[in-house]
Amino acid sequence: MSDLRHRAASLSPGFVPTAVLSILPVAAVLGIAMLAQLWLAPVLANAGADFFIKMGVDILVAMVLAISLTMVNGFTGQFSIGHAAFMAVGAYTAACIVYYGSYRFYGNANVQGGLVSSMVYGVRDVPWFAWADALFLGALLAGGLVAAGCGYLVGLPSLRLKGDYLAIVTLGFGEIVRVLVQSQTTEVLAEGASVTPDHLRMIPAWGSTLAVDDYITAEAIASAPVWVWPKYVGGALGFGGLPFYTSPFWVVLVAGLTLLVAFRIKSSSYGRAFLSIREDEIASEAMGVNVTAYKVRAFVVAAFFAGIAGGLFAHTVGVQLNPAELGFQKSFDIIIMVVLGGLGSISGAAIAAVIVTILPELLRTPDLLAASWPYGLGGVVLGAGLIGVLRSGGRSTTLGRAVLFAGLLVAGLGLLALWAKGSEVDLGRYRMVFFALALIAMMILRPQGLLGVGEIWDRSFWADLVARRSKGGVS
Amino acid sequence: MSERRAILEVVGVNKSFGGLKAVQDFNLTIREGDLQGLIGPNGAGKTTCFNLLTGVYTPDTGEVRVSGHRVEGARPWRIARLGVARTFQNIRLFGALSVLDNARLGCHLRVGHSFAGMVLRSVLHRSEERAIRDRAMDLLGVLGLADRAHEEAKSLPYGDQRKLEIARALATEPRVLLLDEPAAGMNPQEKVELRGLIHRIRERFKVAILLIEHDMGVVMNLCEHITVLNFGQTIAAGSPGVVQNDPRVIEAYLGTE
Amino acid sequence: MLEKFLQTLMDGLAVGSLYALIALGYTMVYGILKFINFAHSDIFVLGAWLSYSMAIMAGLSMQSAVPVAPWIFAALGAVTVLAAVMQAWDRAGYDRVPAAWRGRLPTPGLGGTLTIVSLWGWSSVGLAFAARMIATGAAESSAWRTVAGGVILLAAMSTCGLIGFCVERTAYKPLRKAPRLNVLITAIGVSLLLQNLGQLDWMFGTRPQGMPRLLPDVTLAQFAGSETVPPVKLHLIDVVGAGTAVVLMVALDILVFRTKLGRAMRAVSYNDRNAALMGIPVDKVISFTFVLGAALAAAAGFLYAQKYPGLGQTASATWVLLGLKAFIAAVVGGIGNIRGAMLGGLLIGSAEMFARAYQSPSVADIYVFGILIVVLLFKPTGILGTNAQEKV
Questions:
Q1: Predicted structure pTM score
Q2: Which structural domains are found in chain C, ordered by start?
Q3: Nearest CA in chain C to B47
Q4: Angstrom distance (rounded) from CA B43 to CA A92
Q5: Do A167 and C36 touch (CB under 8 A)?
């Protein structure tokens, strides 16, 4: 028996306090999710700010994706550029289950959920949690699990492949998923009709009596055996008609749990093992870390959460699930978040997800942005002041510089929007140009990203912010 | 006195890269409590031997046994779990991690809780995390790094980085510790301290030590048994006195007249 | 059946030679800097779109000739003025300022680079104008159209070469010593930048356009075939396309394996630090490699636009997929290996065409990616690649 086990046995905490500590955060997340659904969302909806609810849902889904990719790209340092594929796998799995499940159980594909997935706020005559919510939850989990299975398959090549080559395989996997979905039949919609149960096709499972080309009806879905899987997923035209289950409750719940799991991984011995692989694979293996297994594990966990995010995405209001949207452009979006936030930083990825989701919206509606430049100037003054006050030994502090920079950025963007409004330039079109420039500038000027590997909940992070900057390095 | 148990046994190991015979017919036995040295001129195959022992390379022929288990062709992490820990000639710390985290990582292979247990924060997880921290701090204390525990590993001075590598290796609870040129880049004062440190480690952690060293002074004063390599071949093995006077060793180091 | 096979094979080789041209750029950059230049395929797209713009400017389409966008002259003029200022600064200014200020001022050395950039830019514009003069001189003659096309090809290669040069100097050079991941992300950034810049209204816009034919649509030869089976046709465009590609590849092969410059490139690829110690100007060699790769990609873009005249917007998935296939060709052949890129290009092109002809167009990509994954799993360094092991 090792020394570690001896010590652990003598230090063992009681079961009760551990159970409390283990469950309390989960309960807190659940509580916040309920609060968001039952208090915040109705307040916003009543104030006519539906836009913010939609925005919040988008942000939180992006956050789940960014945090999950952080586990692969940030923790283990494996470079995956096909993350959207896991999202697509989860999205299509969940969509099939919810859509065809709804037909099977309810005869139509409308939202049948309770309060937790209600997007009509203030209605009280439905139960808190209906069976349809269980269907949605199950679909999310199934999507996550199928995506995790794909993550296992994609993680396996990391047995042999390193760095760039692994990146290529993940890219190839992502494209294969996209092309596979895209090459599915679109015949039903091509006839000009919307998808109706009359047009559903099913792949006959082994031993079933249905022929491939049988068009079957809602009744047929309800009476078909469970293992008969529908073939029609919309192909290149997208999977339309999905019920919108993705309410503030679900996204807050999933985002909170993702954050919690990512935090627990990073702050544990397993998390250090992940990070050690990123730092030096050979040394890590020499210290007894089964590098291959850990890489695969990172892929599996990340794919699981990406799959759930995909399920949420598929059932978001106004989203038509479309394979073209889940190609490598989407993967690159997620990578941008992870890199801007700082490779390896959970909170960084979360913050970057907020920025990357909000900024395009701001650029599209320049009024808000144009009004922000005075605040930017305020930030500049504050930053300059902070540099002056916190300055020690002739060097400025990171906090002062960060505030100054953020102020300059906001002021610059605000003035730009002001000019764009005057000369009727559509800044929304420049969105990706800005991101691309920001990405390049970030890599050259601050390659470790906003937060590096630090986290906003680390004490050392705040200490570094106000500490004197050492020469040459950045915090 | 009864024969001490053999921890690491190497019998007739050969390794070649293309046409280059890097190591030929290498034999070595390390028993509990041993302090052995492996020396030889540049390019003699010393580090290759370490890589063969720790699973980085697979021997072409021959046997490597750790506590009786055959390990040729086993992955390095498996060999590490059997109780072989090493340091690296060109330091390989986890630079962006803190000094404490480097040491804590070494403990990872002994944890008993599962990944799921970690995510759910099980009782075992909590107690083991505490034990890991305790152990890591103890080790940093032994190597004099405790007050730098929260600095980034890459910001440490060179000598401290070498010490941290030793701490990290010790954290794996090894039965035999392989040190690859621990004195490289140290000044004479530090070398004297290193000698003391190696003795202390052996006493305190009951670990056998095999060290590669360039510096004859360090090896001759420290080791009880020395193996000399030249061009991949073992040209001498025995106590420092024997090796020092072996004509072939003198020839390898000083050349023929 | 033989007809179908031969036709498919020919199509495959025609497309494959274009893939090979693009793959060369990927492989050369990987060979030298050990990173995947994701922006390379966008240079290819720019090559196609620039050819289109120049052809329109020269009045080679049905539309009347359009003037060159004034911002190009403005930008080139600005660069020229800046170059002159920096030249003066390098030669006279820097030495005259007090030594204490110098740390905050730009060090000399930028003047030469800027001068090259401005001269290069002007000569590209000049080539485009030459194409216009040729085209207006002999509007109806198809032979002169082809000559104008040749000049446009050169102009596009020159412009893309310049873009490659600027990209390397501004985005990649500051990261020469950075971790490879950072460079990879920068490359993705440059790729996104080029794609989305190209889509702006004052660049190429978001509407698809039709490339005017600069080569007569002639069938050189046709053989086999019967009343029921269409004959195998050998189109001029395929021959010219594959021919240009082969000529460029042979020239490149001679350049890399038979000249002093090529030896320098191989030396830098083998070990850049040692190459620098041997007196090889590493930065110049790297820049040259980028320029060469970009020029080849531009040529591929021109030829592609001739074969498939419908040009989609620069960020469209079709382009990205084409670039990916070329990249896959480089990987399958053995990235870093020039002959491997050629082999890989032909292999991927044929595989794609055969899958298209014998199964369905939509699954062709799956075969391509499938080949990639199989090759990577069984020979990770590609068919002609060599293995390198990390030293412990």
A1: 0.89
A2: 2-94+106-378 (1.10.3470)
A3: C392
A4: 58
A5: yes
